[in-house]
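job 3f2a | input accepted
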Amino acid sequence: MMLGYLGPEGSYSHTAARQYARDGILVGMKNFKQIITAVEEGTIEEGILPIENSTEGAVTQVMDHLMDTSNSKINGELILHVRHNLLSTGENVEELRYVLSHPQALEQCREFFENHYPHIQLTSCESTSYACKIAREKGLGYGAIANNLAAKNHGLKILHKDIQDNVNNQTRFVVIGRENAAATGMDKTSIAFSFHEDFPGSLYRVLKEFAEEKINLTRIESRPAKTELGKYIFYVDFEGHQEDAKSKIVLKNIENITNKLKIFGSYPMGRVY
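job 3f2a | predicted structure (273 res):
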């Protein structure tokens, strides 16, 4: 099996991919859209994508790109403990002027830099492992936020360990593929929906459907619909498989009271690594 991840090797997505598919062929890709497109077109069987973090919340790029899928479904998930390190070719943090990383990683460590090294300019790039590549090429004055494996792969020194602002920092990854996952009895389902028009109680009507069937929600988010100001798409994860009797009732009722309902897929609840 070929599994696409946000590369290059050594990124947190790479770590998650290794945990999910220990015997798979891991394919590093440049961005999230490239991963999704490759799954959609059948170039690779599956892709792994970060979708939310316990410190910074939703990975909005992934949420937006998933709305455009037609052939792929979410069929798996896992949760990864994320521990960030400050890396560089040099020995002294005071020499650093720029530190690079993925935008999510930067935000997860922002308080650390504000409190200890406010002189350092934080700069975003495609991934944590790509940040290491740049820091290695640029040399003194440049650093990166990444994990131990990325430090080893790029020959960088660890100047500070565990610089994440939240000691319980975790990222949830979802796996997309072209096949539906069978029910296991310990499943989750991810959906998104929007309304024809905003009116008082519109969201309540949807949430009420879950409450009446005693289905627990594990996540609810909203994103701009990008059509006009004030229009939103709501993302919901709930316990259960879409083929469960109660889930079928709820999904049918939601479809009748919304403008658009998208079912991303049902999948086994993921392990924590």
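job 3f2a | The longest strand covers residues 73-81.
job 3f2a | closed
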